[in-house]
């Protein structure tokens, strides 16, 4: 079956060659194949195929309308629907209306959806269960919650999809009180109903409520487990993440990449190398491809658990690298004091066409600081904005102050801090104050301390207290590195 754009084009060329390009059935099949992956390029090509069909049938119309409803440009379904209405020989059916109402919900077309509803009532199919479910979805997604609720209450027949259409909208809009009331009323629930509630509580930061719903579930799928594991990960309860991961294994629910990322991140945060290695072995044993977020999480785990050699091996073995995994290995090498190797990876990254972001530069500048690479650090910092379009932040200035400060270039560091465009950045001034203390420059230390008191008049503890907060600068940059 043709799925990629190239395969679809080849199939279309064959149809033209054999004289089947105008055959409605054959063209409909081609459009059906093309719309299994409705990316903009494929849809554009599919649309051009559609326009050359002499007598498209309802299946053909429905297929292209459905594709647009599921695409990033659902509004493009509207002119095709109007074409269908004006055709005269082909009439929309309940599937056409269902796809169109879904498209309207996706692009916020409340007015268009109401016109379609009027047409439905006119031709007498407005009471169809699937159409009514989609209407609830439309009104809920466009903010007409009361109308959606009234529709649900007046439906002569309801199924779990009807309830879920409104429940998911309440959850998405953060209306958890209303969602909870509706959930308690539901005549029937499926696993998606429970998952909606868990996700809603997780997004609201209500971990205890999410756990209560999770524990009450009659059956759980991978989405359920991932939702509650993510809740504990976001709450920094990393030991609980690993406990749940083990329980998930015991429940014979197969983890996916989302599960692995959360579990590996938990291992990284608590330094549990053995558990991280077990997860890595599980991934290998089950033939799960390591790429994307999972590969980055593995590199990050090994780096933070002290095994930079394994982190490097995972990085090297990852065939499809993205900016996150480059950032992770650069940051890891920097943290382990391997500044020159980190800069080598940075050069490789640029050579392979990846564009660095602000996290990349935190790792690279930290590498320069750890290795005392003054010229490289100056050059990279000066190129951030004009060449790569990355505006230096407090963390980047902090890295440069670290570098200049440890080499005793206090006047240059002071000039950099004094002229930086970022206002009220005490953490950078504190970094400079720490460098002054290390090099015994009392005069500059007094000036910096006065500046700190200007930024924070309530802080009157003096130079020694400010120096004691030197760790804050390091923590701020560590927090940035953790974003890789």
TrEMBL record:
One MF term in the entry's GO annotations:
RNA binding
**Pfam families this protein is in?**
PPR (PF01535), PPR_2 (PF13041)
* Ranges for region Disordered: 461-484
Q: Which domain of life is it from?
A: Eukaryota
Q: Start-end of the PPR repeats?
A: 159-193, 221-255, 322-356
> PROSITE patterns this protein is in?
PPR
Alphabetized NCBIfam families for the sequence: PPR
What name does UniProt use for this protein? Answer: Pentatricopeptide repeat-containing protein
